[in-house]
Specification:
This protein is mostly helical. The protein contains 5 helices and no strands. It is found in: Cell membrane; Membrane.
Length: 174
């Protein structure tokens, strides 16, 4: 329990040193990861069942060669693709926004530094240090959040494409 309290104190200190923008980065990161975990869950547990149902329905059809059968196949594949890629655009947008929010933290931190310089002069390094940490920490956090999001969303995207290709291969048409 004491270990958890030490971790919480460290996180709280980090967030306080980084300023209010760091909380915004944390919120965006949380939403991004919730959405990515939901997509991983869907890809690994829900979509295989749905794809199996599509394959079973396709194999149960007597006609798989007519123009109508091809349109039905295309519609099922399109629906499967739409279900697989749901919320991926939002995830990619959140990944792209993370560095921008970090840069917003840089701007607000530098404004704080300039404010200290205007009020107390340039000789007070301790007071300027708080503004400098408010300028650098959100940028670092935004970049780390974006890098983790890029890596995992790219892997997720690749897995989705493979899953869709496997489904296409399972629905033969002649």
């Amino acid at each position: 329990m004491l270990f958890l309290m030490d971790i919480w104190d460290s996180v709280r200190g980090f967030m306080a040193a980084g300023g209010d923008i760091l909380w915004l980065v944390a919120g965006v990161l949380f939403v991004m990861w919730v959405l990515m975990l939901e997509r991983y869950w869907y890809l690994n547990w829900i979509s295989p069942k749905e794809h199996k149902a599509i394959i079973t329905a396709w194999e149960a059809r007597e006609d798989s060669t007519s123009w109508y059968a091809h349109r039905i196949r295309e519609a099922w594949l399109s629906q499967a693709k739409q279900d697989l890629t749901a919320r991926m655009l939002l995830i990619k947008t959140l990944v792209a926004i993370c560095p921008m929010i970090g840069l917003l933290g840089t701007v607000t931190g530098m404004i704080s530094v300039f404010d200290v310089m205007a009020v107390h002069g340039t000789s007070n390094a301790r007071m300027m240090a708080a503004g400098i940490s408010m300028a650098t920490m959100p940028t670092m956090a935004g970049m780390v959040a974006a890098l983790s999001g890029v890596f995992f969303s790219t892997r997720l995207d690749a897995k989705m494409k493979i899953s869709l290709e496997k489904l296409k291969d399972s629905l033969p048409h002649h």
